[in-house]
Amino acid sequence: MSSISHAPDAVVRAPDQNRPTRQRFFLVAILFIGISVAYLDRVNIAVIAANPEFLADMGITGQPVKVGLMMSLFLVAYAISNVVLSPLGDYLGPRKAMVTAYVIMCASLLMGGMAATFGILLATRVLLGIGEGLYYPMQNTFVKNWFPPKERGRANTAWLIGQSLAPAAAMPIFTYLVAAGSWHSTFHFSFAVSLIPLVLLFLFTADTPRAHKRVNAGELRYIEENLAQEKADSGDATSAKQPYLELVKTYASNYRFWMLLLILASNSILSWGIMTWLPTYLNKERGFSWEAMGWISSLPFILGFLFKIVSGIVIDRTGRNAPVLAISALLCAAGVYLGVVIQNNDVAAIVIAFGIGVSSAQIPAVFTLLQKLVPKSAMSSAAGTLNGIAVAFGAMSPVLIGFSISVTGHFSSALYLIIGIILLGGVLATFLSAQKL
């Protein structure tokens, strides 16, 4: 039986005799595990897409557009789910929504490992997208509910680094599983690992600090006083649940929200396109062996982990988000461009990994700024809309690159287009930076 009460009025807690507890940091550790496993679940396709046995079993050998479709369909479902299902977090609470999301994700992985046709596999990708699209926005709601503004940069970084560490570990793990067994084993592994966050979320989280018995009076007072001050400073006097359209108006009427969305969309186009095709690019165009391809594919995510840490520290120390967005865009575009034009394969792989990695610094800045712009009552909906529409842009990227490969026979033309899009995001970030955001 869980030792945590999830009732909204659960106020029985330890006496305020000792130092404040730090349950919010245990919560963010669970969020880190949850997003890590979610990202691990989605990247196995990038590895098995370079496996001849998988391509033959699915009947898509020599059909790069269909390879891109596996990620693009996932992303379309993920984007729609973000927008349509994220309001559930504002009404049901993030805990119930996240548990439901993981049940859906586990079901999709179980079915994926048994898929015998390409059509069935695509259906499991859609199901995975629905589950992950419901899951992702809830992380922002938890951070908004549990962390004072001065701690959110690092809190966001703490869970967002899972987006980098998980793929970094997954690439070599999945290449080993495919080499030692078959592509089916990547799904079996992902399903087993996904049970861990499902249990943690169900047993050890609560929607708010007040609903969590292990939060003592000292920690509760610290959190609630800071959140009350933020509410007073922002002029947000709402506390009761509002109709959905009223929640939407709180952020949709703010032009900065839409600028932030376009910045995230530019990042999404880069990350989803290159995440899907990087292993194939390294193996087919740069000539790296299967084993080397797995390790090199993990390098952008390792660098992304480091850049996210730096980003979170800078945000909390300076109170600024937009300069991080602008500088990251410039360095990213330079790295990807040099990675395309450099002839030496080893140097090119390192430079393009740097470009992809430094783009990760934008993610903590995007969501910390979002949490500053949007009231608590609309956080799940706003995060889902922001992430969902941005991912919808990203969904075009894998198929775009696949189409470019089929027409030109190489990656460079699509990558130049992506570089231009990243720079446009950098221009918008520079405008926000001028507003001291």
Short description:
The chain has 437 residues and is mainly α.
Q: What's the main sheet like?
A: none
Q: Which sequence of SSEs, written as H and E, runs from N to C?
A: HHHHHHHHHHHHHHHHHH
| Number of strand segments | 0
Distance between the termini: 45 Å
Number of helices: 18
**How helical, in percent, are the residues?**
over 70%
Strand content: under 5%
Give average pLDDT, whole number: 84
Query: Looking at the structure, what is the overall shape?
Result: globular
Please state the structural category.
mainly alpha
Q: Rg, please?
A: 21 Å
Low-confidence stretches: 1-17
Descriptive notes:
It is a single chain. By secondary structure, the protein is mainly α. It has 18 helices and no strands. Helix 3 (64-85) packs antiparallel against helix 17, helix 6 (118-146) packs antiparallel against helix 7 and helix 12 packs antiparallel against helix 18. The longest helix has 31 residues, at 255-285. The chain is globular, with a radius of gyration of 21 Å. It starts with 22 loop residues before the first helix and ends with a helix. The model is unreliable at 1-17 (pLDDT under 50).
Strands, helices and their partners?
Layout: H1 23-48, H2 52-58, H3 64-85, H4 87-91, H5 94-112, H6 118-146, H7 152-160, H8 162-180, H9 184-204, H10 217-234, H11 244-252, H12 255-285, H13 290-318, H14 322-341, H15 345-359, H16 362-373, H17 379-408, H18 412-434
